[in-house]
């Protein structure tokens, strides 16, 4: 009439069900944390492959897009 555990509010599963339910949510949270951490590391790795601001300024100076004074000012700010 009341199930395996009687009228204690835990139903047929008892404390074992509570333990495995808690374990399930801890596992889900851990997987989500590791996935987010991995994705942020992937984004950092992609960002480091690009050119630095100083490299871009050097290219612009070499192409004649900026003057020597503008290049020197940019270099001072970047270094």
Q: How would you describe what is shown here?
A:
- The protein is mainly α and 79 residues long.
- The chain has a domain of 50 residues.
- It contains three helices and no strands.
- Helix 2 runs antiparallel to helix 3.
- It is rod-shaped and about 75 Å long.
- It starts with 13 loop residues before the first helix and ends with a helix.
- The mean pLDDT is 81.
Gyration radius, in Å: 30 Å
Low-pLDDT segments: none
Calculate the mean pLDDT score and round it: 81
- SS content category: mainly alpha
Count of DSSP H/I helices: 3
Distance between the termini: 78 Å
Number of strands: 0
Would you list the SSEs in sequence order as H and E? HHH
Please describe the biggest sheet, giving its number of strands, its sense, and whether it closes into a barrel: none
Strand content: under 5%
Gross morphology: rod-shaped
Share of helix, binned: over 70%
